[in-house]
Amino acid sequence: MTKKEHILEKAEALFSEKGFDATSVRDIAKAAGINIAMISYYFGSKEKLMEELFKMRMSAGLASVKEISENTALTTVEKLEKALSGYMDRVKHNKSFYKVILAEQATNKNKSVIRFMSKLKETYAKFFESVLNEGYASGAFKNRVDPVLFITTITGTIMQSLLNKHLYASHYGVKVTEEWIRDVYFEKVKEHLKTITRNILGYESNS
C-alpha cells in the first residue's frame, strides 16, 4: 500500500465514523501518523482528498463492468448476476466507504464528488441497459423494465441492507459480529438480490 492509499483509508474510516464535516485534516493526519503538510502535498485539501477516495474505490466497479460487458463467454443472465454479485462483494469489503456514499448523497455538499457519482451512475445505467437489451433480444428476460429504475431498485436494496443489518439480526435473534455480517448476512442479501432480479425480469436462475 502506498502512503497516499494509507492516508485515504484512514480518512475513509474517519468519514464513515464521524462524517466529512466533523473530520478535520488534523484528525486524518493523526490517524495516518503523518504531519498535516503531507495532506496538502498529496491532495491539496480535504475536499480533494474526498474526491481521490471516491475515484480510488469506484475504479474497481468501473473496471468490473467493463470486463463483464466485454466477456463474450458469459450468457446474459451470467453477466447480470456477476455484476450484481460483484457489487455486493465491493459493499461487503468496503462497508465504511458505502456509508460515506450514503452521507455524501444525503448532504449533497461536495459538488465535485456528486458530479463524479452522476457520471458513474450513467456508466452503470448504460451497462445494465445493454445487458437488459441483450436479454430481451435472446428471450432470456420476459419482462421489460426501465434500466434506471432497475438500478435504483438494486442499489436501494443493497444500501438499505447495509443500514438495517442490526434490524435483521434483532428480528431473528442473531448476535451481530463482523464474521456474521461478512459470511452470513451479506450472502443472504446476495441471494435476495437474485430472487428480486429473477422475479422482476422473469427469468430462471440456474444457481
Task: Report what the structure shows.
The chain has 207 residues and is an all-alpha fold. The protein has 2 domains: 1-44, Arc Repressor Mutant, subunit A (Orthogonal Bundle); 47-201, Tetracycline Repressor, domain 2 (Orthogonal Bundle), CATH 1.10.357. It has helices at 3-18, 25-32, 36-42, 46-70, 76-93, 95-107, 111-138, 147-163, 165-171, 178-201. Helix 1 packs across helix 6, helix 4 runs parallel beside helix 7 (111-138) and helix 5 runs antiparallel to helix 7. The protein is globular, with a radius of gyration of 19 Å.
List keywords for this structure.
207 residues, mainly alpha, Arc Repressor Mutant, subunit A, globular
Summarize the structure.
This protein has 207 residues and is mainly alpha-helical. The chain has helices at 3-18, 25-32, 36-42, 46-70, 76-93, 95-107, 111-138, 147-163, 165-171, 178-201. Helix content is 79%, strand content 0%.
